[in-house]
Specification:
By secondary structure, this protein is of the alpha+beta class. The chain is built from 2 helices and 8 strands; from the N terminus they run ααββββββββ. Strands 3-4-1-6-7 form a 5-stranded antiparallel sheet, with no helix packed on it. The protein has a 3-stranded antiparallel sheet with strand order 2-5-8, with no helix packed on it. The longest helix has 28 residues, at 11-38.
Length: 202
């Protein structure tokens, strides 16, 4: 009688291993085909480089000071935007810096971004809300206004300046300027005639 060695007849095991290898190969090929579509590198780099908004207003005062300087902005025909009203139809206040209060860094800055850039007058005010620092000299604040005309264009600074806040409670107008329908700065429209914004926030 002919006996078959079970070790020599392994057709069932061979088929099983072949099927498993084919499934694994199919899975690897599927993953390799999907990888480029999960996070396209070109689009990710573009998104991180693009600034949000069309009009950007940024303020910065000396780092390390326990001082609360507030940025107030108003777009044409829109409500006033500041710490107590962080969003309007056009502007949003993205950061309300309160000095050392709930701040993990020593950086002092606030920034507002707009959605769109309607033609008309823009107003940028500063308000010294509080200062818990021993420095008695005026607080110097750098102010930069940038405009991005379209999604494909890069932001360009249109107005920059330095303002001095001399006492708690002081509100000053740093810039008033006009943009035309092409998001261009209107010639000779920049001035700093005071317009209170905090009182008009409601």
């Amino acid at each position: 009688m002919l006996e078959i060695d079970p070790l020599e007849d392994d057709t069932g095991g061979t088929v099983f291993r072949d099927v498993i290898m084919l499934v694994l190969a199919g899975f690897v090929v599927t993953v390799l085909l999907l990888l480029p579509h999960i996070n396209p590198p070109a689009q990710a780099a573009k998104k991180s480089a693009d600034l949000p908004g069309n009009v950007m207003v940024e303020i910065r005062w000396p780092d390390g000071l326990d001082t609360d300087v507030d940025l107030w902005v108003q777009a044409p025909g829109d409500t006033v935007v500041g710490y107590s009203n962080k969003g309007g139809s056009v502007f949003n206040l993205l950061r309300d810096d309160r000095g050392h209060l709930r701040d993990a860094s020593n950086l002092n800055y606030e920034v507002s971004y707009s959605r769109g850039a309607p033609a008309g007058e823009y107003v940028v005010n500063l308000h010294l809300y509080n200062s818990r620092t021993e420095i008695s000299a005026p607080i110097s604040v750098d102010v930069v206004v940038s405009v991005k005309r379209s999604e494909r264009s890069s932001a360009r600074q249109i107005v920059t300046g330095k303002a001095m806040l001399r006492h708690i409670g002081q509100e000053i107008t740093v810039f008033r300027f006009k943009l035309d329908s092409e998001s261009q700065l209107v010639a000779d429209s920049v001035h700093d005639i005071y317009k209170p914004l905090r009182a008009e926030k409601s």
